[in-house]
Amino acid sequence: MACKLCEVHCLVAHSRSNHIIKAFREEKDSIMPRVQVEESGYVSFALQCRHCDDAPCVEACMTGAMHRDEETGAVVCDEDQCVGCWMCIMVCPAGAVRPGKQDSIASKCDLCLEEGFPACVENCPNEAIIYREDDEEENDE
Amino acid sequence: MANNDKNQQRQKKKWLIDPDFRVDRDPDRCIDCRVCERQCANDVHEYDEDGECMRSDGSSCVGCQRCATLCPTEAISIKEAERDYRPHGNWTQSVLQNVHKQAETGGVLLSGMGNDEEHPVYWDRLLLNASQVTNPSIDPLREPMELTTYLGRKPDRIEVEEVDGEPRLKTEVAPQLKLDTPVMFSAMSYGSISYNASLGLARAAQEKGTFANCGEGGLHEDFREYGDNVIVQVASGRFGVDKEYLDAGAAVEIKIGQGAKPGIGGHLPGEKVDEAISQTRMIPEGTDALSPAPHHDIYSIEDLRQLIYALKETTRYEKPVGVKISAVHNVAPIASGCVRAGADFVAIDGYRGGTGAAPTMIRNNVGIPIEFALASVDSRLREEGVRNQASVVAAGGFRCSADVVKAIALGADAVYIGTAALVAMGCHLCQKCYTGKCNWGIATQDPYLTRRLNPEIATRRLKNLLRGWSLEIKEMLGGMGVNAVESLRGNREHLRGINLSSRELDILGIKAAGE
Fold first, then answer.
1. Residue A25 distance to chain B (closest CA, Å)
2. Which CATH number fits domain B19-107: 3.40.50.720, 3.30.70.20, 3.40.50.12710, 3.40.50.300?
């Protein structure tokens, strides 16, 4: 329904302060949401990384920054190793990787591994974003 | 002159009409995320690119609280706009506003939902009984408690015969609706509410073993699978009525009147009649759906009988056929007439009953409270010895399980809830259903807005509401020492009145507290 609260909460979840007002006031220039609501007319879709089984971004990454987390199977970017060559952005079939706002680091969904559960799913007021591990990952109405 | 008219039309500012609400935004909390802007169908909020901040214009705010609810930092509060008119007991501010509005537009004042005037709520003046010492109360968590309710004509007497040594019912019982709890969803048409809202109601009714009334707008193809838990309505517009429609439902209800607007027809504006609604209603797309005030083939009880039996004939006498009337001054003899005309149940809709749109003057001034209507109908049917011939369903402003229990003690077999069901789905009673801009996705057909109501969430919330009320009803019954809702029906000994005149007590047929 395009309220974009997923974007808001994604940004907060990936902020240093983890505080919604601080994150927007003080850190907004350096961080960005990793989920993006795309709209066409009244149809909207919250797009984030699909965490593909055969992730092309992992294949394309020359430094090994983009890798699969062994424990969870999520595709994540090691920010210390990323050099900002943007090959991952070029090959991502979903357009789910975007250049970060600072430091030339690729920005993408990490399934909120640190928090334990994706913030976008937790905060969607219409339960449009669903987290599924088995089949086709997340779906948006 | 023509130029003047044109100028007048183009004048955006209705300068004597005050805003109803004021939007307060706490700048220390607002993070300019623009959720409020995207969620308001009335364009109250706007992002100021130059000032790099949100701005709000309260003049178009309807007070639906959508923005305040979704604001992630609780930066928004919607408050009633304060006006410092000189106080006047007769010419209150809302009266002045109404005069200003009509002086400006020359139109009829419209409202959504039910009567919002501060008339006494008689449910709050009725008190329930509980057992102490001389008769034991029952703990519903430990002992069985029966809420099952059957709606339909009951036989005058029951004959039992013995077949192969086993007793068997010899009397043929008329078709009945079986309710697991004495609460049903009242008539709300697809058109007045969205597809998702209708779906939520039908699903919740099916999963909780009760019934949803589809209203006068026909039954969408997709909802026919829930037909066993749907009461189909036949109203004066006869929208969407054909044999398949009548067969699709579990019962048929003839709508004569609606509590919010007795004596008035309906009007679904053409802009809401999209392809799906046009097919469901069987009218051309984009045309206004006008329900006449009366049924043009019903001018007497005899005419009503003809329609009742035409419907019974069509449905092979397999389904109960009921009649819904508004609670008006002579409701008791009218209900009696309906029963004699062959109605298997009579639904009475009190003056608090809701609506998608009604002229404000009608909504606030026509009809009587359901408490009195229900008591007088039940008494009248008993006096005439026809109470068993039809079930009585009460409707119009039921807010909680205690209202339901009191209604049953006053004589209702079951109740219809409409507004409470909408509130369960998210409605905040802004009363602007008629604008078609429901920010909660309920009373709208705008695809951008309807998707805001996830039918799965709606179903879950409605089911929860019915579950909670049913548990509370059981608790109250147990406290009274009654183990079945049947035993409470019409048992006014369980009610006492406070703040009521002796005349009112007489009409309600109850004693005063302490008696």
1. 7
2. 3.30.70.20
CA distance B272 to A50: 38
Tokens encoding B151: 């709606």
Q: Determine contact, residues B250/B228, Cβ cutoff 8 Å.
A: yes
Query: Distance (Å) from the C-alpha of residue A106 to the closest C-alpha of chain B?
Result: 23
Measured in residues, chain A has a length of: 141
Contacts of B70 in chain A (CB under 8 A): 3, 5, 125
Q: Where are the alpha helices (DSSP H) in B343-454?
A: 360-365, 370-383, 401-410, 419-424, 447-450
Which strand (E) or helix (H) includes residue A46?
A: strand A43-47
CA–CA dist B469, B405 (Å, integer) = 10
* Dihedral sign computed on CA atoms, order B424, B237, B324, B204: negative
B441 touches chain A (CB under 8 A): yes
Q: How far apart are the first and last CA of chain B?
A: 71
Cβ <8 Å between B451 and A141: yes
> Contact B67/B74 with Cβ under 8 angstroms?
no
Report the CATH superfamily, name and number, of domain B149-512.
Aldolase class I (3.20.20.70)
Amino acid at A7: E
Q: How much is the ipTM here?
A: 0.90
Would you state the structure tokens that stand for residue B470, as one six-digit string? 């049913």
- How far apart, in Å, are the Cα atoms of A41 and each of A38, B360, B444, B448? 10, 35, 17, 8
Q: Which one-letter amino acid corresponds to residue A134? A: D
Give the residue extent of every domain in chain B: 19-107, 149-512
Report in angstroms the alpha-carbon separations of B167 from B158, B175, B176: 12, 21, 21
Are the C-beta atoms of residues B441 and B197 closer than 8 Å to each other?
yes
Distance, in Å, from the CA atom of B200 to the CA atom of B423, rounded to the nearest integer, reads 13
CB B209, CB B230: distance < 8 Å: no
Q: Which two tokens stand for residue B33?
A: 């995320």
> Mind telling me how many Å the CA of B72 is from chain A's nearest CA?
8
Name all domains of chain A by residue range, CATH numbers in brackets.
Answer: 1-48+110-141 (no CATH), 53-108 (3.30.70.20)
pLDDT in tens, chain B (515 residues): 455 666 665 665 567 888 999 999 999 999 999 999 999 999 999 999 999 999 999 999 999 999 999 999 999 999 998 878 899 999 998 899 999 999 998 999 999 999 999 999 999 999 999 999 998 999 999 999 999 999 999 999 999 999 999 999 999 999 999 999 999 999 999 999 999 999 999 999 999 999 999 999 999 999 999 999 999 999 999 999 999 999 999 999 999 999 999 999 988 989 899 999 999 999 999 999 999 999 999 999 999 999 999 999 999 999 999 999 999 999 999 999 999 999 999 999 999 999 999 999 999 999 999 999 999 999 999 999 999 999 999 999 999 999 999 999 999 999 999 999 999 999 999 999 999 999 999 999 999 999 999 999 999 999 999 999 999 999 999 999 999 999 999 999 999 999 999 999 999 999 999 99
Query: Cα B372 vs. chain centroid, distance in angstroms?
Result: 18
Closest chain B residue to the Cα of A3, Cα to Cα: B35
Using DSSP's 3-state secondary structure scheme, residue B512 falls into strand
**Among B39, B73, B446, whose Cβ lies nearest the Cβ of A3?**
B39
Minimum Cα–Cα distance from B27: chain A residue: A21
Alpha carbons B232 and B248: distance in angstroms, whole number: 8
